């Protein structure tokens, strides 16, 4: 067996395609864990849209792009928008008539109209794949498939809740779409504490993307976990394909990107492997000697 490793795997576009993970990936995770390695999911999704059967495959789940860290049943970190900042974000998005979802570990908080638009997007699949599929991402061709682990877009729809007061909701991140102003402008209007990431499907679409706290990064989840389990950072591995994986890939002892990722993501990695349809996680584990 190789020296004990702690592996962090992105979900959409890395471990799964359109919210469904191939059985081969699940089997590789089980075998690597049986060999003594720690395997964690590290996703931009909130925990509320990670299917229980997916979460159960791993030793822990880092969700909300590092905002929420759970190892076993222990929550190590749970960072959310401060109340005043969260209310201001909601006010700005409502003023611009943006469709959005407030991402929390227990729900996707939406207005009634946004909930309706989410359901409409999920029920009208179109081609495409995303690095971090959220409520505003294209659900893709996997909506009717259960060939693997996970429920595809249904995991998103099932988490949607419509509260009486969106501004009072506690949340870690915001997904948005159909905005008439660029995502970066929305972030600037809300405040300097907020950063923006473009749409995970196409960087040309400035009307969709996500808003996050600048203090939160997947790298933080990696570092917290390594310290918690007593492993040196040199023993960590990160696998991802998106811009929100950059910090994690750079922080890890070994970074692995997915073929077709943006140049800056590939440059942060030691090597690259295929996407989920070609079982790239299996390839990565084999190259690392984890299986």
List strands and helices in order, with pairings.
Blueprint (H helix, E strand, L loop, with lengths): L5 E4 L13 H12 L3 E5 L9 H4 L4 E4 L4 E4 L2 E5 L4 H13 L3 E5 L4 E2 L2 H11 L31 H6 E2 L11 E5 L5 H8 L3 E5 L10 E5 L4 H12 L6 E5 L5 H6 L2 E5 L4 H5 L3 E3 L6 H9 L3
Parallel strand pairs: 1-2, 1-12, 2-3, 7-8, 12-13, 13-14
Antiparallel strand pairs: 3-4, 4-5, 6-7, 6-9, 9-11, 10-11
Helix pairs in contact: 1-10, 3-6
Q: Assess the beta-strand content as a share of residues.
A: 15-25%
What is the terminal-to-terminal distance? 8 Å
Order of helices and strands: EHEHEEEHEEHHEEHEEHEHEHEH
Structural class: alpha/beta
Outline the biggest β-sheet: 8 strands, mixed
Determine the number of helices (DSSP H or I, runs of at least 4 residues): 10
User: In the residues, how many domains can be counted?
Assistant: 2
User: Helicity level, as a percent range?
Assistant: 25-40%
Whole-angstrom Rg: 18 Å
Average pLDDT: 90
Poorly predicted ranges: 126-131, 138-146
Extended strand count: 14
Strand order of the largest sheet: 5-4-3-2-1-12-13-14
What is the CATH-assigned architecture of the largest domain? 3-Layer(aba) Sandwich
Which geometry do the CA atoms define? globular
Fill in the CATH topology of the largest domain: Rossmann fold
The CATH class name of the largest domain reads Alpha Beta
Corresponding CATH superfamily of the largest domain: HAD superfamily/HAD-like
């Amino acid at each position: 067996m190789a020296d004990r490793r702690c592996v962090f795997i992105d979900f959409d576009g890395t471990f799964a395609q359109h919210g469904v993970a191939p059985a081969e990936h699940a089997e590789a995770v089980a075998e690597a864990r049986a060999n003594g390695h720690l395997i964690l999911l590290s996703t931009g999704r909130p925990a509320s849209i990670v299917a229980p059967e997916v979460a159960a495959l791993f030793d822990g789940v880092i969700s909300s792009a590092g905002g929420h860290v759970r190892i076993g049943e222990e929550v190590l970190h749970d960072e959310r928008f401060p109340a005043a900042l969260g209310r201001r974000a909601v006010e700005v998005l409502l003023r611009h008539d943006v469709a959005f979802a407030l991402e929390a570990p227990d729900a996707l908080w939406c207005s009634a109209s946004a909930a309706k638009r989410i359901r409409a997007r999920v029920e009208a699949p179109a081609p495409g794949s995303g690095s971090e599929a959220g409520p505003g991402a294209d659900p893709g061709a996997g909506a009717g498939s259960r060939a693997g682990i996970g429920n595809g877009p249904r995991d998103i729809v099932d988490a949607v809740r419509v509260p009486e007061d969106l501004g009072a909701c506690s949340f870690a991140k915001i997904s948005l779409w159909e905005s008439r102003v660029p995502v970066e402008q929305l972030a600037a209007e809300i405040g300097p504490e907020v950063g923006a990431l473009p749409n995970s499907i196409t960087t040309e679409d400035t009307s969709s993307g996500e808003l996050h706290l600048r203090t939160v990064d997947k790298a933080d989840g990696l570092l917290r976990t390594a310290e918690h389990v007593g492993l040196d950072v040199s023993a960590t591995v990160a696998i991802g394909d998106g811009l929100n994986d950059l910090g994690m890939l750079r922080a890890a002892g070994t970074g692995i990107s997915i073929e077709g990722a943006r140049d800056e993501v590939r440059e942060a990695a030691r090597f690259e492997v295929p996407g989920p349809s070609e079982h790239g996680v299996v390839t990565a584990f084999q190259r690392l000697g984890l299986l």
